[in-house]
Amino acid sequence: MKWYEQNYVNRRDWVLDHLAVLELSAEEFLMVMTVDFMNEHRMPITIDTLAARTGLSGEKTDQIISVLCAKRYLEIRASNKEIRFVLDGLFETETAKQQRVMDQSLFDLFESEFGRPLHPREMEKISEWNSTYNKKMIIQALREASAYRHLNTSYIDRILQEWKKKGYNGASGKESV
User: Fold this and answer.
1) What is the CB neighbour count within 10 angstroms for residue 47?
2) CATH topology classification for 3-96
3) Which CATH code of 2.60.120, 1.10.10, 1.25.40, 1.10.357 fits the domain covering 103-166?
């Protein structure tokens, strides 16, 4: 399963967080959000339903869909009696791969240290940290929590927040000036 298909990943939050990188216009963003929402709720998608939901004309909707397809963010797949609008390309761009979006080894490390499978909320928190802090800093906070036998994400979150307040960046083991 790809990182963006995991239950703990909020795809719409990710898009919002990476708007500048993705270079979506306001109308393209609206269309992406609408398609993702309709896919999540298993609603049938057509140009007419997208136009009705976004308030855009059918012609404008068709134009935006064409642009998203040209950018390879959207793929329209036809299968037995249904047409699917697939946004996987949005999350598979080179830019997305370079953004440290998800690091499976980090989850494996936490599961190993905790001695149990992670709860979806813990995975969400680790995913959030991964986009906020560098990996080395997260691992150092996990090690500190382990040393004090406080293996829970709330404790680790407090460590990371405290280090951030102090200007510690985790890269060199020293505070940044």
Assistant:
1) 15
2) Arc Repressor Mutant, subunit A (1.10.10)
3) 1.10.10
Polymer length of the chain: 177
- Phi and psi for 108 in degrees, rounded to 5? -60, -40
Residue 121 structure tokens: 């909320």
| SS3 label, residue 156 | helix
SS3 103: coil
Number of Cβ within a 10 Å radius of residue 98: 9
Query: For the chain, what is the radius of gyration of the CA atoms?
Result: 20
pLDDT tens for 13-40 read 888 988 888 889 999 999 999 999 999 9
| pTM, 2 dp | 0.56
